[in-house]
Design a protein that fits this description.
Elements: H1 2-7, H2 17-36, H3 40-60, H4 65-84, H5 88-108, H6 113-132, H7 136-153, H8 160-179, H9 183-200, H10 208-226, E1 228-229, E2 234-235, H11 240-263, H12 271-299
Antiparallel strand pairs: 1-2
Helix pairs in contact: 2-3, 2-4, 3-4, 4-5, 5-6, 6-7, 6-8, 7-8, 8-9, 9-10, 10-11, 10-12, 11-12
């Protein structure tokens, strides 16, 4: 359907800026559909074309903000497709290009929260890509740089949108730190995001989806304390104190999932929501059981 819509544009690219931006969006959409079908080569080609069209518009019309968004986004999704094709250097180059265009725009509008977030986010993506190509020191420096930029201003306006988007970013950063063994930085980042997100989950504005996200945050902190190995499904904490902290956070996750389960009984929530809740609860219960058995064994 998307390919047909693009073909209906004709063989010549439209000249009017908004029409060209619209065409780039269609290529992006096409690429995302290919991605869902795991046709990564086609996805990469579509995103590459989207980026070429939108960048040309943005260079000619720097105030065309949607052209800028399309340019950065298409290179990001191009990078993701290249990762699936095991072209990790190509992915790194794509993320760097996204960062480059956002940084160019931010230099002209340094007060923009959107551009500040974009720069911080793409610094993070460049950092994770550097880790993939075997440059851990540069990766860590870039991720920390993005986190510092993010902290400078993103939560100045504590709107729900900022908190949700910001929490998602901080979770990714925290999980990166945890994956490379920087436990203290991972915990500090989670401790930064959780109190703000908890405010969104207080009655009466709490909703089932947000509670599920919050339970996931609690569980992730528990995993860090417990030294959870996702491949082997075992816990390897450093000491008994870590077990106790892991239990505390796992219990918070389980309690939150129980509250979510009650909300999921309301009309409008289908079986898929309840199934995810059951799976998450079971996983946490298994980890709690491991922790309690290991503590009991250590005291015998």
């Amino acid at each position: 359907m998307v390919r047909r819509a693009i073909q209906q544009q004709g063989t010549e690219e439209p000249q009017e800026p908004h029409a060209r931006v619209d065409l780039s969006s269609k290529y992006q959409w096409q690429g995302e559909i290919y991605g869902r079908l795991a046709e990564w080569q086609n996805a990469a080609e579509s995103q590459r074309m989207a980026g070429l069209i939108s960048e040309a518009v943005w260079r000619e019309n720097p105030t065309e903000i949607q052209a800028l968004r399309n340019t950065s986004h298409s290179h990001k999704t191009l990078g993701e497709a290249l990762e699936h094709l095991a072209d990790y250097q190509g992915a790194l180059d794509s993320y760097r290009f996204s960062l480059l265009v956002i940084e160019e725009a931010r230099a002209k509008d340094p007060a923009s929260n959107e551009l500040t977030y974009g720069s911080a986010y793409y610094m993070f993506r460049v950092g994770t890509a550097l880790q993939r190509v075997g440059e851990p020191a540069s990766a860590l420096e870039m991720v920390r740089q993005g986190l510092t930029l993010f902290r400078q201003r993103y939560f100045v306006e504590l709107r729900a949108y900022n908190i949700r988007q910001g929490s998602d970013f901080l979770q990714q950063v925290a999980d990166f730190f945890a994956s490379i063994g920087y436990r203290n930085e991972a915990l500090a980042t989670y401790n930064e995001l959780i109190p703000r997100f908890e405010e969104l989950c207080k009655p009466p504005q709490n909703d089932a989806a947000s509670l599920g996200t919050l339970a996931g945050y609690y569980g992730s902190v528990g995993n860090i304390h417990a030294g959870f190995n996702p491949q082997m499904k075992i816990l390897t904490p450093d000491n008994r104190g870590d077990f106790i902290e892991a239990i505390r956070w796992y219990q918070k996750a389980l309690d939150t999932l129980r509250v979510q389960r009650e909300l999921l009984q309301a009309p409008g929530y289908g079986p898929a929501f309840r199934s995810r809740n059951e799976s998450a609860s079971k996983a946490i219960e298994e980890k709690l059981d491991q922790c309690n058995r290991k503590i009991a064994g250590a005291t015998e």
